[in-house]
């Protein structure tokens, strides 16, 4: 009987000890789960980039989750708004035009402000980047350039955002940011896997980027790691480093190159009241002031320059003559490196895929060669476009909604693009097939502003709210329950020990 009683006590003690250990384990587990299993709920962050180009300004609104992938935000374009009026480099000349430009800025910024949650206004960064138009103005009239930027800073500072900067970005940076945009949109930097997580694409090669603006053109592509020099920039994105060749050619944007070609045509004519222009379609005639061509740092003013001098240009639609004049604004002869593009600029050979956008796309679209094309087909399309009468051109391009001021330029522009790509960048019949003329990728505009936002998002702190697996009442209840069980079992163990000993 005593033995059975002792065995009973031992079993009771064992059960109570087991309950004690289980209660302690449960108590620790609840505390650990609450502390370590919390999900970090990142709110969305917003950033605004104003792209102030030579011909217009566009406001872009970007959004990304606060949880960054290897230090860089995963950015998407939420909206964009084109500012009414001319580029900012035209400001501080005509008060009436300035007033319209300011109205355009205010209208776009009001639309962007509405698209951002009110509680996020105080954390939204705002940038303005001015490109080649302002680079040229800064060379020509630094005082007016500074005054324009200062007036923009005053306005942007008045908005409910964190205004970061309004500055003129370098051509090299513009090229780099364009390269980042292209490869981000193409999925070459980051891709979403089956589990909805972002990963670096295995074995994915990057694409080259080519941007044709109004006052400058840029080329950028990934180069071998061992290549160095003033045109090479290292950039780190999503935890990976890239060595990018990037060069910008000021005065080789479509509008400025057009002025340089017009200058050559005018120099060949002795009669300003009748100037045959082989780069204008036959049947097209226009009158322009000399200032339209020479009021820029990209052309040299003639000795008898009069800004109000009237020039009558008559289209002759001569493709071969136009091509020969276009070539004269390039220097393909001088090169002190292993390989050059033009004007003595060193450039590695072009390989792999390339995205050509902005002015490249609009020119290719005008001659029916947007998307991917063939070297000989593109060349033939330049010729066909130039030899088409103006009346026919207007009729054929009605659906494309191209205004006369642009349509008249595409004979010159097509030859310019072909010469730049084939003889400048050295694309041949094989490598041309890897080129894609596009305006957008995945419904997002291709340009430097998205790449700029991706790079700048490294600076933006993430706002983190920890979402706990257990609500406060549940957590407190479990802690109370298992604490009570622990105390009760400790008391029971103590009672059994006392009874056993005495």
Automatic annotation (TrEMBL):
Name of a matching Pfam family: GDA1_CD39
GO biological process: nucleoside diphosphate catabolic process
Claim: Transmembrane is one of the keywords in the record: yes
Keywords carried by this UniProt record: ATP-binding, Hydrolase, Membrane, Nucleotide-binding, Transmembrane, Transmembrane helix
GO terms for MF: ATP binding; GDP phosphatase activity; ribonucleoside triphosphate phosphatase activity; UDP phosphatase activity
Keyword Nuclease appears in the UniProt entry: no
Residues that, per the record, bind ATP: 214-218
Transmembrane portions of the chain: 474-498
InterPro entries, sorted: GDA1_CD39_NTPase
GO cellular component, one term: plasma membrane
Catalytic residues in the record: 174 (proton acceptor)
Family: Belongs to the GDA1/CD39 NTPase family.
Descriptive protein name: Ectonucleoside triphosphate diphosphohydrolase 3 isoform X1
Species annotation: Cottoperca gobio (Frogmouth)
């Amino acid at each position: 009987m005593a033995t059975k009683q002792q065995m009973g006590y031992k079993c009771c003690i064992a059960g109570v000890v087991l309950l004690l250990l289980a209660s302690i384990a449960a108590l620790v587990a609840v505390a650990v789960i609450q502390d370590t299993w919390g999900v970090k709920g990142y709110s969305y962050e917003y950033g605004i980039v104003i792209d102030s180009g030579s011909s217009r300004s566009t406001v872009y609104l970007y959004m990304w989750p606060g949880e960054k992938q290897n230090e860089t935000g995963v950015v998407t374009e939420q909206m964009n708004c084109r500012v009414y009026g001319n580029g900012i480099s035209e400001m501080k000349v005509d008060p009436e035009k300035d007033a319209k430009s300011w109205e355009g800025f205010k209208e776009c910024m009001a639309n962007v402000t509405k698209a951002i949650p009110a509680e996020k206004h105080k954390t939204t960064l705002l940038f303005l980047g001015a490109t080649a138009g302002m680079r040229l103005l800064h060379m020509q009239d630094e005082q007016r350039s500074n005054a324009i930027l200062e007036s923009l800073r005053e306005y942007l500072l008045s908005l409910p955002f964190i205004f970061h900067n309004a500055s003129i970005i370098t051509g090299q940076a513009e090229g780099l940011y364009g390269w980042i945009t292209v490869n981000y949109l193409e999925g070459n930097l980051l891709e979403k896997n089956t589990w909805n997580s972002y990963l670096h694409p295995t074995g994915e090669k990057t694409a080259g980027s080519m941007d044709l603006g109004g006052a400058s053109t840029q080329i950028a592509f990934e180069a071998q790691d061992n290549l160095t020099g003033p045109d090479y920039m290292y950039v780190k994105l999503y935890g990976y480093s890239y060595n990018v060749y990037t060069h910008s050619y000021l005065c080789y944007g479509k509008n400025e190159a057009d002025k340089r070609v017009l200058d050559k045509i005018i120099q060949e004519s002795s009669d300003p009241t009748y100037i045959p222009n082989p780069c204008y379609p036959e049947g097209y005639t226009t009158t322009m002031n000399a200032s339209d061509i020479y009021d820029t740092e990209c052309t040299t003013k003639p000795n008898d320059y009069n800004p109000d001098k009237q020039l009558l240009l008559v289209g002759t639609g001569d493709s071969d003559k136009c091509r020969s004049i276009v070539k004269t604004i390039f220097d393909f002869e001088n090169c002190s490196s292993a390989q050059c593009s033009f004007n003595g600029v060193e450039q590695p050979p072009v390989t792999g895929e390339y995205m050509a956008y902005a002015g490249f796309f609009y020119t290719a679209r005008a001659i029916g060669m947007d998307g991917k094309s063939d070297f000989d087909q593109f060349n033939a399309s330049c010729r066909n476009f130039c030899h088409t009468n103006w009346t026919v051109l207007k009729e054929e391009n009605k659906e494309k909604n191209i205004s006369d001021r642009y349509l008249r330029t595409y004979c010159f522009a097509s030859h310019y693009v072909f010469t730049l790509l084939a003889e400048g960048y050295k694309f041949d019949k094989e490598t041309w097939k890897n080129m894609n003329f596009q305006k957008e990728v995945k419904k997002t505009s291709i340009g430097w502003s998205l790449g700029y936002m991706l790079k700048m998002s490294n600076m933006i702190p993430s706002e983190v709210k920890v979402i706990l697996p257990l609500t406060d009442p549940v957590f407190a209840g479990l802690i109370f329950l298992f604490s009570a069980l622990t105390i009760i079992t400790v008391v029971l163990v103590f009672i059994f020990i006392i009874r056993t000993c005495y």
